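Worked example

This section walks through a single chain of length 73. The input is the sequence exactly as stored; nothing has been trimmed or padded.
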Amino acid sequence: MRAAILFVSALLLAACKDEPRFDDRYDEAAKEIEARANAMDADIAKSGQAAPAASNDLSETAKPSNPPPSSGE
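Given that input, the structure is written out below as tokens.
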């Protein structure tokens, strides 16, 4: 019985050692978030440069067609 308790205790202690500290996990998550934000900023900047160029290629916009007025019936 004692051997089983010691064995389970050793397993629990070994499992706890492998868990990274909060600060390490926080730093890793912060780096990942910053990398994603930089990638999003780059995509936005690229699309912002493409939008004016695309709008220059468009001809004068057509007026929207409206259905004929109702006769009231």
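What to look for: The CA atoms of residues 18 and 61 lie 63 Å apart.
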